[in-house]
């Protein structure tokens, strides 16, 4: 972000301008700002307040005029309460907030997003697929997209790479989406079985016959469901934090925090 001077650290063979200097007079985008360390937060705050930066290893101060756009999928107000995000920095960046709902709540955007992603992927992989069929679009609209736009992009890329037609069909997408849906259904089924087993165990321990009390009388709490869902996801992804976070639709920092919250992190 701030660049460095030649010789400021091992491998710094030449002076390099950082992102802020490169963006001087323009715009810089800071993604996942909620995951920034406290030291980086302090540096960002200084830039926003004074418009000044220094390269790593340098003493010269440079003035920059940059519009900053930042994004996060975390609750910064909650992080402020936890002491993990600076309140003064929050007020600096929260000048014009825009809240983007999850993809499942704005399905009208799916066709436009799909065509934009398709155009990028077609060029990236030099694909011969010419367009996406209307029934395929309908199939995309019907899906719940727990992983939001990243999952949409991943799904389209997989489907396009295995497509042997002149255009992407509903069947091409079906092979990918059915697999995803089976995983979701399997997670729910596993969770239901584990909940039922827990109820039966509790009934046996208290001397109550399982058949006397219907299983449906026990309803798992949201906390229990979240914990089991995270546990299943990390185990299925062999504790790959990046893949698990994308599957759950949360950031890696949020995933780490929840693993620690539920006492699962020691298994990593």
UniProtKB/TrEMBL annotation:
Q: Which UniProt keywords apply?
A: ATP-binding, DNA-binding, Nucleotide-binding, Transcription, Transcription regulation
Q: Which GO terms describe its molecular function?
A: ATP binding; sequence-specific DNA binding
Sorted alphabetically, the Gene Ontology BP terms of this entry are: regulation of DNA-templated transcription
- Cite the CDD domains for this sequence: AAA
Q: Where is the Sigma-54 factor interaction domain?
A: 1-161
Which InterPro entries does the protein's record reference?
AAA_lid_NorR, Homeodomain-like_sf, HTH_Fis, P-loop_NTPase, Sigma_54_int, Sigma_54_int_dom_ATP-bd_2, Sigma_54_int_dom_CS
This protein's name: Sigma-54 factor interaction domain-containing protein
